[in-house]
Amino acid sequence: VTVRADSSSKRDKGRRLDPSLLSTGRSLGSGSFGECYQGSLQDPETREDVPVVLKRVRARVAGAEEMHEAEHLINVLANKAAGEAVAPFLGYALVETPVGRLTKGLWLVWEYEGDKTLAYYLKRRDMERCLAADLGVDEEVAVATAMKQIFECLVALHKVGIIHRDIKPANIVFDERRRRFRLIDLGAAACLRTGTNYKPLETILDPCYCPPEEYVLPTDAPHLGDAGTRLRTVMTPLLWSQHKPDCFDTYSAGVVLMQLSLPFLRTTSSLRTFNGALARCNHDLEEWRGRSGLPARQTAILDANDGAGWDLAANLLRPRRVVTDGDGGVKFLDTGKAPRLTASQALKHAFVRSAGGARPKVAA
Ligand code: ADP
Ligand code: MG
C-alpha cells in the first residue's frame, strides 16, 4: 500500500455542473467581488428544478479572480467539514459560451435558502416578532436564539480551522426549510489548516463589523499560506492557541448582537458612529454605556436577566489584544484584561443559554 500525501483537499472542487442545466433569475446584488443571481438547477435525473443561487466573479476587479477561486475551495472544505453551518454548496459550472446572464467564466452554485437574511429582519420595525415567528420561539428569546444559531455556525467553522472574516447581517441567511440561520459568503474566509485564502497582510473587510485588531493573526506571525502541509499541522494549533484567530469573527458577532438589541443601531451611519464612540472608550462597552445615556426602554433586550446581554456584548467587543503600530506592522499584545470570548464560550454564556435547548420544528 502506498500512502501518498493528501493534497486532495487542495484540488477537490466539488461537483461540476453542466451549464445547460442552469438558469438565472433576479439579481441578488453585485458586490465588489462578484455577481449573484437567484436561479435554478435542473436535476439531470428527475428533471425537477431546484432553486439555487449563482455567483460569478467580475473579471474587471483586480484580485477578484483569485478570491473567487479561494471562495470555491473554501466552500468545498466548509461543506464537507461544517455542512450545518453554511448554505449547501451544490457545485460549479464553467461557462464557455455565454447564455443570457450566464456569462463566460466560473460560476458557483448553492442551494437557495430563502428570501431573508438577518439584514432583512433588522430593517423591520417589528423585528423581534418576525424573528420569533420564523424561528418558532417566544419573542423574549428571539434575539438569543438567533445569536445561538450564529455561534453554533461559528463553532462548526472554527473547529475545522476556517475563519469567516465577513460576519454581518447580509451574510447570515435564514434557511426557511430548517428554520434556522446559516452563514453564506465565504469569499473572504480563510482556512488556517490548509492555508486556503490566508495571506497575512490582506484585509478585505467591512469596516463596520471588523474588529479593531483588523487581522486574523499578528502580521509578523509565520506565513501559513506558504508553509507546507506538515509544517502547518504543527504551526496552526500553536498560532491558534496563542492568538485566537477565531475571535476575529466573534467581535463581528458582537456588533450583530448590538444591532439586534438596540433599534437605533440598525442603520449604517449610526453603526459607524457607535464604532467610533466605542473606540474612543478603548472598546470598553461599560464605559460607552455610561456615556451614551440610553433610555431604559431602548435597552430591554440587553438588560434582561440581570444585564446578561450587556455582559455578553462587552465580552465580545473587547480588544483581542492591544494593537501597536511600530513599523507599520500589527502586533497583538496582552491587555491583561479578560480576553474576548470564543464562539464556544459564547454558547455557554447566560444570555445565549436563555434561548433554551429546544430546536424549532423543521418544516416538512
Ligand atoms: P456578495 O459577495 O455579493 O456579498 P453573497 O454570497 O453575500 O455575495 O450573496 C449576496 C446576497 O445573495 C446575500 O446577501 C443574500 O441576500 C443572497 N444569497 C446568497 N447566497 C444565498 C443562499 N444560499 N440562499 C439565499 N440567498 C442567498
Ligand atoms: Mg455578502
Write a structural description:
The protein has 364 residues and is an alpha+beta fold. It has two domains: 20-111, Phosphorylase Kinase, domain 1 (2-Layer Sandwich); 118-353, Transferase(Phosphotransferase) domain 1 (Transferase(Phosphotransferase), domain 1, Orthogonal Bundle). It has helices at residues 8-11, 64-82, 118-122, 127-135, 142-159, 229-243, 247-261, 268-280, 285-292, 300-316, 343-347, 350-353, and strands at residues 22-29, 35-42, 49-56, 89-95, 105-111, 162-163, 172-175, 180-183, 190-191, 322-324, 331-333. It has a five-stranded antiparallel sheet, covered by helices on one side. Strands 6-9 form a two-stranded antiparallel ribbon. Strands 7-8 form a two-stranded antiparallel ribbon. Strand 10 and strand 11 (331-333) form a beta hairpin. The chain is globular. The protein starts with 7 loop residues before the first helix and ends in an 11-residue tail after the last helix. Adenosine-5'-diphosphate is lined by residues 28-29, 31, 33-34, 36, 53, 55, 87, 110-114, 117, 170-171, 173, 184-185, 187.
**CATH level 3 topology of the largest domain:** Transferase(Phosphotransferase), domain 1
Per the principal axes of the C-alpha atoms, what is the gross shape?
A: globular
Structural classification:
alpha+beta
SSE arrangement, N to C: HEEEHEEHHHEEEEHHHHHEEHH
State the share of residues found in helices, binned by percent: 25-40%
Count of structural domains:
2
Radius of gyration, in angstroms, nearest whole number: 21 Å
What is the highest CATH level, the class of the largest domain?
Mainly Alpha
Strand order within the widest beta sheet: 1-2-3-5-4
Organism: Chlorella sorokiniana
Protein name: Serine threonine-kinase chloroplastic-like
